[in-house]
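Deliverable D5.2: sample structural annotation.
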Amino acid sequence: MRRGAALRPALRRPRRVRAERPAVRRRGLPRRVRRDGRGRDPRRARRPGPRAPPAGGRPAARPRSPPRPRRAAVVRTTAVVPAWNGRGWLPGLLASIDAQERPFDELVIVDNGSRDGTADWLAATRPDVVVLREDRNRGFAAAANRGIAVAHGERIALLNTDVELAPDWHARLADRLDGDPRLASVASKLVRLDDPGTVDDAGDRLRRDGVCEQRGAGRPDDGRFDVPGEVFSACAGAALYRRDAVLAVGGFDERLFSYLEDVELGLRLALAGWRCGYEPAVARHAGGGSSGQLARPVSGWVARNTLLLVARAWPWRWAGPVVYRQLAWTLHAARERRLRAHLGGLASALPLLGVMLRERAALRRVAVRRIEDVVAPVPWRGPTAGGHPDSPE
């Protein structure tokens, strides 16, 4: 069976419906009803108003999760935007969403406890947007999961607040996802917002030393990244996902909070048999839109989440490359005088290391592909490694 075939609904009519049809045909016509002087049916009385609660009151109702927003007749794609203190970026993003050649069917913005009035501004200026409010910053992963949970679209466009999409972005990525049932996601070509001639991310690649390469980062946009193909995973700052595939593997891991949560999701999707396409539709990305306001610097989050990812998924025989990379990163952090932040990030991973190690067996049991086939043996040191100044990517 091809991947995705199980997601198609059955075409047969339910048996219970067929069994009830003869009874419906034998039912007689209603008797004629004498109407009042105004032509109204006297049997149709007004519904009584709400009853008063009994003496003593009723116990407080258990709080419910917010209902899924009301949808249009057909919803194919829902755009989900996790937002945290990103009001200054939203006008540019929303303008590019409005300019799409193929409009999104639904737009959900999850406000992660912003202190800049994002939710109120949206309520006043964009009544067409579904706004979900969090009481505090729960991280990109949690906000993305909440948006995906209420979305009605079978495709989910995940977007950062600090991106601006080319007009053909949605159409090209949707056609690519629909055209290949093996794909769970499609990555796009991110270029720098202030310098569109420089690539920011053309799809991610995971190496056996635990490093995630942003393909093309810092390279000139000279056409070498304009060929569609496949990559390991997509940068969730501007990517399209198959909703059912994401939900089937459990969504984003909220324990990672922010950074590398899209790579970790890509790893679980790949182990489950899915693939990630690359379509060079352009999204201009500022980068670090709200990350400067986090208590921990980005480098600390990357150090923490890299350690958690490899602890959960890596075979022990890959420990050598991981140890080499961790020592190299620590030395580099010391040279750049950010050793304290780097070590703080590593230390923050310690409370979760035991949990991740215990989940290794469960991850292997549900995998349909070997991790050796998912994480290719690409060079991880020297000038041929991705990200090196002398490498082509």
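Annotation notes: The CA atoms of residues 199 and 218 lie 6 Å apart. Residues 298-358 form one domain.
The annotation will be released with the project's public dataset once the embargo ends.
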